[in-house]
Design goal:
Length: about 290
């Protein structure tokens, strides 16, 4: 059994086609088919049929299903080993994910501080939703992701970074702009502008409102906090946003006020896979993010 045979086997299993698998692996179809047959053969391989060929359709046999998980783990381990050797020298790379309600506000300052001490590390940044970042962590496509708790997966290590207050965003000339703090009771009749419910932060804001006895009158939803704040500045409603978004807004077209006690917060965390290779620079990035 050879590594390249396992690669071809996994490619066929994942694409369901010898033709597409050959294209993915950049080999000819006869070459790929020959290696699969060797893997299945008694003399050179496992002495088990791994695929049933049903016309153009290819499906795994029971033996194929049994091998697939092992093969995927072996190939992932080889990939991790190759990367560990490459990154054992000074520098290396670090693949960092962050959710959209964190990335534009936290990453610029974090990366600036990190690169002062680690200028040789090549950073690869990805901004995406929590669900997709978690999938990338499990697949080995990311080294670490910055997101909001709770994260519940026993395969992942979750390290708390800090708790961040949530604040009320108001148009600059809003009737409540002169107050030092705004309570949910103050905005019972106000139109609300919220993040789309595909964002975990949108759900968190709704839960906060409901716990405070407020059923917000949502007039607009969006996918980016910057866009929501532009709508608030235009007088289309009010919103609740993370404090880091308020700090980053220098337009002076919105005002931000703390919410009444108990102060609502979200807890940010760094997440990585417990079993996968961790570049030496990962710990340094997490520590810098906590400052």
């Amino acid at each position: 059994m050879e590594i390249h045979q396992l690669k071809y086997f996994v490619a066929v299993a994942e694409t369901g086609s010898f033709t597409r698998a050959a294209e993915r692996e950049d080999v000819t179809q006869p070459t790929l088919s020959e290696q699969i047959m060797r893997l299945e053969s008694k003399k050179h391989g496992l002495n088990r049929r791994l695929f049933d060929r049903l016309g153009r359709k290819v499906v795994l046999t029971d033996a194929g299903h049994e091998l697939l998980g092992h093969a995927q783990r072996i190939l992932a381990a080889v990939k991790e080993a190759e990367r560990a050797v490459r990154d054992s020298a000074e520098g290396g790379s670090l693949r960092v994910g962050a959710i959209p309600t964190i990335a534009p506000f936290l990453l610029p300052s974090t990366v600036t501080r990190f690169r002062k001490d680690h200028p040789a590390v090549q950073l690869q940044l990805k901004e995406d939703l929590t669900e997709r970042l978690l999938a990338d962590l499990l697949a080995g496509e990311l080294d670490v992701a910055l997101m909001a708790m709770p994260i519940r997966d026993d395969r992942l290590h979750v390290e708390k970074l800090f708790a961040e207050p949530l604040v009320m965003a108001l148009p600059a000339k809003h009737r409540l702009a002169s107050k030092t703090e705004v309570r949910l009771a103050d905005v019972l009749e106000e139109p609300f502008i919220l993040l789309d419910d595909m964002h975990c932060f949108g759900d968190q804001v709704l839960s906060l409102c409901h716990r405070g006895g407020l059923e917000p009158r949502v007039v607009c939803r969006g996918e980016q906090i910057v866009t929501l704040l532009a709508m608030v500045a235009a007088g289309q409603g009010v919103s609740i946003v993370p404090e880091m978004a308020a700090t980053a807004d220098t337009s002076k077209q919105c005002v931000y006020r703390p919410l009444g006690k108990p102060i609502p917060t979200r807890t940010l965390c760094a997440v990585w896979h417990k079993q996968r290779f961790r570049p030496p620079s990962l710990r340094a990035l997490v520590d810098v993010t906590k400052r």
